[in-house]
Write a structure and sequence with these properties.
The complex is a heterodimer.
Chain A: H1 3-50, E1 53-54, E2 63-64, H2 68-74, H3 77-108, H4 116-128, H5 131-141, H6 147-154, H7 171-196, H8 200-208, H9 213-241, H10 245-250, H11 262-271, H12 280-311
Antiparallel strand pairs in A: 1-2
Helix pairs in contact in A: 1-12, 3-7, 3-9, 3-11, 4-7, 7-9, 8-9, 9-12, 11-12
Chain B: H1 2-27, E1 30-36, H2 42-55, E2 59-65, H3 68-80, E3 87-89, H4 96-101, E4 131-132, E5 135-136, E6 138-139, E7 149-153, H5 154-159, H6 168-182, E8 187-190, H7 196-209, H8 232-246, H9 259-267, E9 271-276, H10 279-287, E10 293-296, E11 316-318, H11 325-335, H12 343-350, H13 360-364, H14 368-378, H15 386-389, H16 393-399, H17 407-415, H18 422-444, H19 464-470
Parallel strand pairs in B: 1-2, 8-9
Antiparallel strand pairs in B: 3-11, 4-5, 6-11, 7-9, 7-10
Helix pairs in contact in B: 6-8, 7-8, 7-17, 16-18, 17-18
Classes of the chains: A mainly alpha, B alpha+beta.
Chain lengths: 312, 471
């Protein structure tokens, strides 16, 4: 049989196998895809649609206004304040979260460390606690009569008690600390997974060559876990831009918009109003506009990650 | 033969089980779903429901209490989709006209027994508030009394050797003395500062006490063609609040606590003054019977200072798509009954609120502070309301877009020291609201001048004759 004849017989079989494989893949993905389309895709499309209307979300009279909501947003100082705060929050949270979680992961990856599982669990516990519960408890802890003030006063770090969440000067920082404490466990788990993929013989070789622990970390471990770092960075950035539950329970976006991020702005605009009806359409426009920005940032970060991997 | 017998037996068994199920279904009580956010009367409501179900075994009450925000974000969607509860209140963000136009409520009089409506005090089932075009759609929860009275802790005032302050200056000085004497045990004033609406209510009350012309919460009124948020009286009220904050006389966590938390901390003796409403009395009677306190109108900032009456609002109505309108009407009749049920008497006795049913307050108001509150509130005056002048203004509130930062946010910013120059924000707010109100008036086709009441003298009650004089 000639080579051409063999190829001619093989390719339909290969094609059939490929189709079969693809079908199986789609079969496994389909359930997730259906749920995604129902509970993520459909609401996103609805939100885009509603953003073109002047609508309270409470009545049936929707007035089509085209891009008017988007135009109004451009002149809304409170929206831009929330927009800025979202990025301020991201810039403060992401480095802290990524570095601290890596630090703990590296520390707790040491097999010689006793009770390391207990430490890992204790650092992961805040992740599984509901954000609203954390919010309520933290309001007490950070209150002017709370334990933070007591501890800082005992150490002579402050002269008089501070209402950390009620003072515009400190509110954002406080929210960031609580957020880092709450979510750090998730990223620590990602880092641990990455660290466990580092071959032990490479570490041992570095040690035999006389490298210190920090040198081994920066020169051997970091290059190996760098691809995971990219994913963690993207996830952390996107999650910080979507922050809502913790901020809503801790401060509600206050005092005087000091911790108001886009999610709290959208929630407040969509469901409450001091005068007149809530503005569901306007809130949808804000959510859509910010969503587009987040997508662009995600795409840019992803492209950067790809570039870095190529360079490596 | 055996097979036939077996089939016959099976058929009989099937028939019996079906008829049994049908009988059970027929005997099963109907479930009436009731939703609202009346947290201060929860105990009495639950007691009422037990009493009601005992006397009406054919009805099972499924009562759900939410916050206003939860109601707006969850139940409203269900109402629009035809899945709403059988009985629910008009959301605070809507007015009756809009709710009725949306077809949410049934005209209820046809389901109510004769004479029931006559048991209500005169004037409470008002046009535009509970009725639309004469048709009754909702009933009020309680009598409308001012929600900006000042409660004071008598023990703290005695310990500091102070009398009840009556002017702005006295109030600020009293707060300062109290805070200094308390030395970390208690402070002058406490507020639920993370609820911007409470901050706004306090600020508006102080503007009124300074003799400023300002509408009640959530309502629009112009003075010389402008939203009156940058007036000298407003500046005076702001100055007082800023002074209290600067003196350190405001409870330090005020900015991050809610109104119920402030209420609780006041009862624990953490502050001498609290600005809230009647609902506190019932809660304190239950949770802090030892609390020695009194109630006063806000201190005066000018001779023509006043406290405004609040506008009565619509409350519970029967869902237009309910399957059980008769049962829902029976529930409402029982809730307001003074002969077969005790709910109205209970809430008045406990000091939770005043009843809208004739004779209930007179017979059951036993709490001395509640009587004090009632007396203080009776000195409140009616201020002009655009909807009373022209019902078309109900559409104004469905159309107008509120400016930001709102008065509530600015008031919150003052209490939390988040803004240094509040009058700049208030001027910008006046400009923005004036423009927004003009736009809303144009949209619905009413004259912007309808928001102006030139014949109103601040500090004097605005009467029906005054409305008539403007026609």
């Amino acid at each position: 049989m000639s080579q051409h004849a063999i190829k001619a017989v093989r390719s339909p079989i290969q094609r059939r196998n490929r189709i079969k494989l693809n079908l199986w893949c789609w079969a496994f993905v389909s359930l997730t895809l259906i749920f995604y389309l129902l509970f993520q895709g459909y609401p996103i499309l609805c939100s885009i649609y509603y953003s073109l209307f002047n609508w309270s979300g409470m009545t049936s009279n929707m007035a089509y206004v085209g891009l008017e909501n988007y135009r109004s947003l451009l002149n809304d100082s409170v929206f831009w304040g929330a927009f800025k705060n979202s990025f301020r929050y991201m810039i403060m949270v992401v480095p802290l979260e990524v570095v601290i979680s890596l630090f703990f992961a590296y520390l707790l990856n040491d097999e010689k460390l006793k009770l390391r599982t207990a430490y890992r669990v204790s650092l992961f516990v805040p992740v599984v606690v509901t954000a609203s519960i954390v919010g309520i408890v933290m309001v007490f802890i950070w209150s002017s009569n709370g334990i933070i003030n007591y501890a800082m006063k005992s150490m002579n770090l402050i002269d008089k008690n501070i209402n950390w969440l009620g003072n515009a000067k400190y509110a954002m920082q406080t929210v960031v600390y609580v957020s880092v404490w709450k979510d750090m466990g998730t990223y620590m788990i990602y880092w641990l997974a990455a660290l466990q993929s580092v071959p032990t013989d490479v570490i041992e070789a570095a040690s035999v060559d006389g490298a210190t622990r920090s040198r081994t970390f920066f020169s051997v471990v970091v290059p190996i876990i760098a691809p995971t770092a990219g994913i963690i960075l993207i996830l952390c950035t996107i999650n910080s831009l979507k922050a809502f539950d913790l901020i809503q329970t801790l401060t509600g976006g206050g005092p005087f918009y000091a911790t108001d991020v886009i999610a709290t702005f959208v929630y407040r605009t969509a469901f409450t109003s001091d005068m007149g009806l809530p503005r569901f359409g306007y809130a949808s426009a804000a959510a859509t506009m910010f969503g587009i920005v987040v997508i662009i940032i995600g795409a840019v970060l992803n492209a950067l990650k790809g570039k870095l991997q190529d360079l490596q | 033969m055996k097979k036939r017998l077996l089939s016959l037996l099976l058929a009989c068994a099937l028939l019996m089980s079906v008829s049994g199920a049908l009988t059970a279904l027929a005997d099963e009580p109907i479930t009436l779903r009731v939703y609202d956010w009346s947290d201060s009367t929860l105990v009495y409501r639950q007691k009422f429901h037990e009493e009601f179900m005992e006397k009406n075994p054919d009805i099972k009450i499924e009562y759900t209490q939410l916050t206003i925000d939860q109601f707006n974000s969850t139940v409203v969607g269900a109402i629009q989709n035809g899945e709403g509860p059988d009985l629910f209140p008009v959301p605070t963000t809507l007015n009756l006209t809009t709710a009725v136009n949306e077809g949410w409520f049934l005209p209820m009089e046809q389901y109510l027994s004769e004479g029931f409506v006559d048991t209500f005090q005169d004037g409470v089932l008002a046009e535009g508030v509970q009725r639309k075009n004469g048709v009754l759609y909702t009933l009020p929860e309680s009598g409308s009394l001012s929600n900006s009275m000042i409660f004071y802790n008598k023990d703290i005032l005695a310990e500091c050797g102070l009398e009840v302050p009556t002017t702005f200056d006295e109030f600020r000085a009293a707060c300062k003395t109290i805070t200094e004497t308390g030395a970390g045990r208690y402070w002058g004033l406490i507020e639920g500062g993370n609820q911007a609406n409470r901050c706004e209510i306090l600020l508006r009350a102080l503007v009124q006490s300074a003799g400023g012309k300002i509408a009640i919460n959530g309502r629009a009124l112009t003075v010389d063609g402008r939203a009156p948020y940058d007036t000298p009286e407003m500046a005076k009220a702001v100055e007082l609040l800023q002074g209290i904050v600067e003196d350190g006389s405001l409870y330090p966590d005020t900015a991050s606590i809610s109104a119920p938390e402030a209420r609780e901390l006041f009862a624990q003796g953490k502050a001498a003054f609290l600005c809230q409403g009647l609902w506190c009395i019932g809660t304190w009677a239950n949770d802090h019977p030892e609390l020695n306190y009194g109630v006063m109108t806000p201190p005066k900032g000018a001779d023509n200072g006043y406290v405004a009456n609040v506008e009565g609002g619509p409350w519970m109505g029967i869902y237009a798509k309910t399957k059980y309108p008769e049962a829902a009407a029976r529930y409402l009749e029982a809730l307001y009954s003074t002969t077969d049920y005790h709910y109205q008497a209970d809430v008045v006795k406990s000091g939770s609120y005043v009843s809208v049913i004739k004779g209930v307050n007179e017979a059951n108001m036993v709490d001395p502070v509640m009587k004090e509150y009632y007396e203080a509130a009776s000195k409140c005056i009616d201020v002009p309301i655009a909807t009373s002048r022209d019902a078309k203004f109900y559409d104004f509130y469905s159309t107008v877009v509120g400016a930001t930062p709102s008065l509530a946010s600015i008031a919150q910013g003052i209490l939390s020291q988040a803004i240094d120059e509040p009058m700049d924000y208030l001027k910008a707010l006046s400009d923005a609201e004036t423009a927004n109100w003009k736009t809303a008036c144009e949209t619905i086709g009413v004259d912007f001048a309808g928001l102006e009441f030139p014949n109103w003298v601040a500090g004097q009650p605005y009467t029906s004759e005054d409305y008539a004089a403007l026609q």
